[in-house]
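Researcher: I'd like a structural prediction for the single chain below. Treat it as a standalone chain; there are no partners to consider.
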Amino acid sequence: MKKMGTIEKIAAVALLLILLYCLAAIFFTPGWGDEINFHYPNSKNISLKQILDANSSYSSAYTPVPYLIGRVIIAVHDSLTALRLFNFIATLLLVYFFYRIASFFSATPLLLTLLLTANPYLLRSAFLYYMFNFGMLFAILGIYFYFVSTSSYKYLFAYICWGLAVLSQQWMLMLFVASWIMEFHEYLGKSMSLVRLLCLSLLKMGVLLPALVLFVFWHGLTHPNFHYHALHPGFEHLNATLANWGLAAILIVLYNYKKVIRINYLPLLFLAPLFYLAVPVHSINPGSHLSNGVAVQMASQIARLTPLSYQSCLLGLALFGLAVLVLILSKQHETLEIYMKFALLGFLAAFVASTNLGASHILISLPFLWLIFYQDFNSSFRLLLFTTLQFYLISWFYIIYVSFYKVYEINL
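Model: Treating it as a single chain, here is the predicted structure.
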C-alpha cells in the first residue's frame, strides 16, 4: 500500500506539471492554425442567424455550443488569450470529472486520471483555442452522472450532458446510440422494464431534439460550408483507426494475448491482406485515403530508418488494433464495459464513414478505450503504469512541439 501511495503522489505531481506547462503555453504560443482561421472568428461572429443560415460565414465543421460560450467570453474580454484561458478552465473541469470517475472504478485513481488526461490532442486544446475538449467534457460529465452519481435525476442529467456533447462535437451522437443499445440489452436481460425503457427513450429524444433540428437546418451533420466532411466510408480510415488503437493499447493486447489468440478469432487474420492493400497515405492534413498523427508518423520513421516498409509497419499496428477490437467485443458482463463497447463500436463506424479523418478525431475515443479496460488496469498495476508512461511521454513531446512550432519553424 505504501508503494501505491507513492505512485499516486508521483502521478499527482506529473499531472500538475503537464497542466502547468499548458497554462504557461497559453501566453507564449503564437496563434496557431485553425484557432486563427476558423475558431476565433466563429466565436466572435456567431449568432442564431449565422448558425441556421446556409449562406452565412459559419466557419467550423463543429456544432455551435463552444462558440456560443466563446461569444460570452469575447463580450467580457475580446482576445485569443481569454478564449485559451477558458479552454484551460474547461480542461481542469474535465480532469476533475476524470478523477471522480476514476475514484469510483480504480484502485489507483490519480494514475488512471493521468492516463485519461495524457492525450496529446486534449492537452493541445488546454492551451490553444481548439474544440477537442468541449464535447469530451460534456461526454465525461454524462458518464459521471449515468454510472457514478446517486442522484434521483442521474439519467436526466446524463442525457442533458450528452445532448450538449452532441451540440459541441457531432461524434458524440454515439453516446446516445450506445445508451439505447445498452438499455435495450438490459430490457432483453429482464433487468429493465418495457415502461422504463420507453420513458428513457422519450427522455433521450427530447434532449436530442435541438441537435436534430439543427441537423435538419444544415441538411446534414455539418454546416453547409463544411459539407465536404460528408460521410464517405473508406477502408483506409478503418486501417487508420485500428492502427491508432493498436498503438494506444499495444500493452493491453500483450497482457491479454491468450484471449486474442483463441481459435474463434483466428478467421479475422484473413483481413490482413485488405489492410495491406488499403494503407492510408501519411499526410500532414487529414482527408480521404489519408492519415496523420503518431501512428503513421511512427510507421514512416521506422520505414526511413530500417528495411521495413511503411505499409508493413502500419499493417502491424492495424493488426494490434484488430486485436484491440477483439478484446472490446469480448466485454459483455459489466455495465460500464458494455456501454463503452457500444460507444467504441459507434465511434469506429463513424470514423470509417468520415471523409476528413485525422488522428485528433480518432483519439477522441481514447478515454472510452481506457475505461473499457479499467478491470485489466485494476488486475495489473504495471499495465496501467507503463500504458500511462507511454502516453505521458508522447503527450509531453507533442505539446512542446506544438507550442514551439511557429517560434522555431520546426516541422516534423
